[in-house]
Design brief:
alpha/beta, 8 helices, 9-stranded mixed sheet, Alpha-Beta Plaits, globular, about 20% strand, TIM Barrel, binds iron/sulfur cluster, two-stranded antiparallel sheet
Length: about 280
């Protein structure tokens, strides 16, 4: 192992919500999208070292280092005062950890989990770190999964793909202009990844968040389900109800879809031939 470090927002020792079975989930800091409906915007940016959060910490857990704020978890009492102060979509308590340090946090639960999932933020922005981490995880007999916005071409990372068992891919909008409006970025690579990952037998699940009025939900579900059905109709398509909790109100004020609307969307996907549509 090298001393290459990943920037980590937090580690969840065990969860059944991020891939198959019970999994340790590692959330990486930093994302290249800025989704209007993001409810974890503190994961979007890397710290710019403005120092604004330092004075909010009464225990001395935060200091400024060469590459931004440095967090000493042993001095932190989890009051979370600092999280309210950062106005740069960053996270004062992010940790720079080597693969060996991450493995030391995973292994105490080794017998309780089937694998790990790496989420974010956007995990593919730290592909070198993930490649090294997945190699170490595989040596322990654990499975590997990622949750990704699909903005980088996975066909460019064959070494990583050989170590990655499963991918959960967000398709946030099918129409380019809608995706640009929602995320600030193109969806061209997202849609290329959708096909690529199926052909490599790596696609575990596709997710779309349903936001009435903001998005053309029916068009996205129709187009995406047609593509998946053509490639492999057994792949899971999860339709997720928008939830306003944690969303930046200055960017988006929207309501959750009704159960009836979600059922209507599921029916569209089923009519297109999908056999595994999930409402969440
Ligand atoms: S959560 Fe921890 S680092 Fe943040 S202000 Fe409180 S004690 Fe300091
Ligand atoms: S975490 Fe936010 S407030 Fe603190 S130094 Fe970094 S950018 Fe500034």
């Amino acid at each position: 192992m090298t001393n290459f470090k990943g920037l980590i927002n937090r580690i969840l020792p065990s969860s059944s919500l991020h891939g198959a079975g019970e999994r340790c989930v590692i959330f990486l800091q930093g994302c290249n999208f800025n989704c209007l409906y993001c409810n974890s915007s503190e994961m979007i940016s890397r710290c710019v070292g403005c120092g604004r959060c330092i004075d909010s910490c009464m225990t001395g857990a935060l200091t400024i280092g060469d590459s931004g704020v440095e967090f000493n978890s042993q001095l932190c009492n989890d009051c979370d005062q600092c999280l309210n102060v950062c106005d740069k979509n960053s996270f004062p308590k992010a940790l720079s950890l080597t693969v060996a340090e991450v493995m030391a946090k995973i292994m105490p639960n080794r017998d309780l989990i089937t694998g790990i999932s790496v989420s974010g933020g956007e995990c593919s922005l730290q592909i070198e770190f993930m490649t090294e981490l997945f190699a170490a995880v595989k040596k322990e007999g654990l499975s590997t999964c990622i949750e990704t916005n699909g903005s980088r071409s996975y066909s460019d990372f064959p070494e990583f793909m050989a170590l990655c068992d499963a991918v959960i891919l967000d398709v946030k909008a099918f129409a380019l202009d809608e995706h640009l409006k929602l995320t600030g970025q193109s969806n061209q690579k997202v849609l290329e990844n959708l096909t690529f990952l199926v052909t490599k037998n790596k696609l575990y699940e596709v997710c779309s968040v349903i936001v009435p009025e903001l998005l053309e939900n029916e068009a996205t579900v129709n187009q995406v389900s047609q593509i998946i059905a053509r490639l492999n109709p057994q792949i899971r398509y999860k339709l997720i109800k928008f939830c306003a909790h944690g969303v930046r109100q200055n960017l988006l004020s929207a309501v959750a879809p009704s159960d009836e609307y979600m059922e209507k969307l599921a029916a569209i996907a089923n009519q297109n031939g999908l056999q595994n549509v999930i409402l969440a």
